[in-house]
Amino acid sequence: HVLEGGGREGRAFAKENMGDQAQFEVLMGALMSQKNEERKAAETQFEALIRNPAQAAPLMCTAMAASADLTVRSMTTIMFRKRVDRAFYDALTPDVQAGVKGALTSCVQKETDASTRKKMADTTGEVASIIMEEDPEAWPELFPFLFTSAQSPDPGLREASHIIMSRLAYSVSTKLVQDVASVNTLCMGGMQDAHKEVRLAALSATGSVVQALSSYEEQVSAMSALVPVICSVLTQTLNEQDEESSRQVLEELINIAEEAPKYFRKQIDALIQLSLQVATAAHLEEETRFLAVELLLTLAEQAAPMMRKQKMFLENIVPLALQLMLQVEDVDMAEWNSTTEDDNDGTELTSLDVGKDALDRLALSIGGKTVFALAFRADLVPAFLEHQDWHYRHAALSCISQIAEGCEKQMKQKDHLSTIVDQVAARFADPHPRVRWAAINAMGQLETDLGPDLQNQFHEKVLPALVSVMDDVANARVQSHAAAAVINFTENCKKEVLEPYLQGLLGKLGQLLGGGVRIVQEQSITAIASVADCVGEGFGAYYPSIMPVLKHMLQTCTGKDQRTLRGKTMECISLIGIAVGRDIFINDAKEVMDQFHATQTSAMDPDDPQVSYLLQAWGRVAKALKHDFIPYLGLVMPPLMRSALLKVDTEVLDDDAQADGDDEDEG
Fold first, then answer.
1. In this structure, which of 428, 501, 521, 613 has its CB flanked by the most CB atoms within 10 Å?
2. Inter-residue contact 547 to 510 (CB < 8 Å)
3. Contact 596, 618 (CB under 8 A)
């Protein structure tokens, strides 16, 4: 029953095991049981069986081919694919190996259920890959079977032949090289099939073959005639309004672009044009359009020299990214001002995300010189910055932020840098708070990517502007971000540059600390710490006004929602201690360490952020006080060691828990 039409070897071993077959089917059913204990027992029994390949292989092949129960055929096919590896196959006698091969092709040929047949084709391809990886001639009957099946009047069998090829291609690349013309014909015929399922399977096979042959330039070039056919498959799915299938095609194109981008060289114009049409088609779902953008970006990253020559791509890709970035969701401003998170919570990809990612990747791939010239074209960033619609100004500032790293060399040219700093700083006073936020964000990014040049040359423009925008009391998020930009500024700054601004800067940050808005306080206190770290002993003059505020916060910020703020306060105090030195810090050290110790000995939750802040703060205080810290060692070290050990134990448990979770998922 196993191998009708599949070879006498299979028929021989089928009869020997018929007595066990009923029990095996019961076992397969139990593997799908909703009852946990029954399923676990079946898994144990199956594991024992699989350790005996000579017994397991005939049972599984017979079940796949002859079981009257569709769920058993399907489950056995899945388990066969998961558990049959090289060691399993090598443990079989030549007769049983031949029976397995015959059984698989017979199952693919004769299965009547479409879903199960696809699973069988998938399994056949995976097993063939194992068998033929070391010796492409180890299954000589398979390729004739595939070519014959591809011409079958049964569309399900035609589809199956391409599924097998897609799984097999990587393992038989040396064999494919020898007969590219035949493979080309096979793939082209499949992608021009009347049935969409066959076209999609053939497209997947084409992608696998091209990627498998990516190191064989001549053969890949010979298959490039299929690119227009691939594009026609995409066009057909779009015309049929089948976007799920369209996305499948785009994903396959992206896979090819990652592994063999030069495959598209001869037809690159047509592919770019089609991708741009999809990316800008407003009637299509975002997910579909985003994949078209991803295809263009992947080509830019993987074949930058080729894409730099494509006029259509260069003229359209930056405007496309900016258009995507105009799609900023309107939100309740009270809600927007309650968080420091980005414009979305990261749960789904937005148009803004895609546009920003595109600009970043373009600048790093096709080069800063090209992207800078494109972005600062008169009708793009400069015009967007002056547009009456705030979405355009927001997009322009986001663009500056995203391309800064890749365009560092161009932006650092003095004329350019002066203009850009002026353009960004001017938007600190924009009428719309979200544009003001974007301007601050861009300045912070410029400080990081273009420092210390920006800090050295334009401190007199940037720092007063940041202090000024901290007065935006109606928008806590803007205030918070301005403080965050100070942190960026100090990281690439000499103390001589910062010192003239300390009075105004620390005075304003101190005001923000006392304002009572948590997100503003958290960034302000970190900004104060960064300033102290930058100027060192120069902070001493401001110590008497700042330290009492910090000690008060340490004593009063006791709520659960203030734990991060309290941890940042510990960080700030300890950094200031190092900056000003022992002689100034010693007068407050005992009071501070008493607070640290009280926190450390309190009942903290395992996820309390104060734990990590404490561990680092103690080290800094010890560094600041030097030998004066010795009397505190007996007090500090025992709980400190317990905290460290608890942290290690927790991490180990997390790993184990993760492993357990993975096991459950696999089961």
1. 521
2. no
3. yes
Higher pLDDT, 348 or 53: 53
pLDDT tens per residue across span 279-316: 999 999 999 999 999 999 999 999 999 999 999 999 99
DSSP reduced 3-state for 376: coil
End-to-end CA distance of the chain: 30
91-107 CB burial, b ≥16 within 10 A, e <16: ebeeebbbbbbbbbbbb
CA distance 164 to 142: 10
Please tell me whether residue 624 adopts helix, strand or coil conformation. Answer: helix
424-436 per-residue burial string, b: 16 or more CB within 10 A, e: under 16: bbebbebeebbbb
pLDDT reported for residue 344:
52
Which residue do the tokens 């592994």 mark?
Answer: 259
Neighbours of 88 (CB within 10 A): 18
| The three-state (H, E, C) secondary structure of 173-189, written as one string | HHHHHHCHHHHHHHHHH
Give the confidence band of 10 by pLDDT, cuts at 50, 70, 90.
Answer: very low
Cβ-Cβ contacts under 8 Å for 83 (sequence gap 6 or more): 50
- pLDDT at residue 329 greater than cutoff 70: yes
b/e burial code for range 328-358 (CB count within 10 A of at least 16 → b): beeeeeeebbeeeeebeeeeeebbbbbbbbb
Close Cβ partners of 570 (under 8 Å, ≥ 6 residues apart): 554, 596, 599, 610, 613, 614, 617
Q: What is the pLDDT of residues 168-182, one digit of tens each?
A: 999 999 999 988 999
Contact 565, 608 (CB under 8 A): no
Other C-beta atoms within 10 Å of 558: how many?
Answer: 11
Q: Is 439 left (phi over 0), alpha (psi -120 to 50) or beta?
A: alpha
Which residues contact residue 429 at a Cβ distance below 8 angstroms, ignoring those fewer than 6 apart?
A: 436, 469
For residue 476, give both structure tokens.
């806590």
The half-sphere exposure of 105 on its side-chain side, counting CA atoms within 13 A, is: 23
d(CA 211, CA 205): 10
CB 523 within 8 A of CB 509: no
Phi and psi at 555, nearest 5°, equal: -80, -30
On whether the CB atoms of residues 79 and 60 are closer than 8 A, the answer is: yes
| Confidence category of residue 342, pLDDT binned at 50, 70, 90 | low
CA distance 484 to 342: 13
Per DSSP, the residues of 457-518 read HHHHHHHHHHHHHTT-TT-HHHHHHHHHHHHHHHHT--HHHHGGGHHHHHHHHHHHHTT--H
Secondary structure element (H or E) that encloses residue 89, with its range: helix 86-90
DSSP code, position 266: G
- Based on DSSP, count helices (H) and strands (E) in the chain, helices before strands: 38, 0
Residue 407: which of 481, 326, 318 has the closest Cα?
318
Q: How far is Cα 517 from Cα 166, in angstroms, rounded to an integer?
A: 58
